[in-house]
Amino acid sequence: MDEGSFLGENDDQMMRKVAVIGPQAASELFTDGSDPVGQTIRINGQTLIVIGITTSKGERVFESGFDCLRTAFLSQNSCLG
To answer: To bridge 54 with a disulfide, which of 11, 13, 40, 68 should be the other Cys (CB 3.0-4.6 Å)?
Structure first.
């Protein structure tokens, strides 16, 4: 993680509508350079609070080496609508 935190079990238990986004998505969504953590985004009609920004390209986020530049990770509750 570059900033903030990743999704946790507590996010689902508390039914929080939160997301973790990649650094490229963050720069495309927040063009004014503001800190995305704590701000809201909309995905498929759902308003979500950004709780974290993943690591930049070239650094592994997961053991598989998956790159998360433009990816958004959502809490389970966020996917239920």
So the answer is: 68
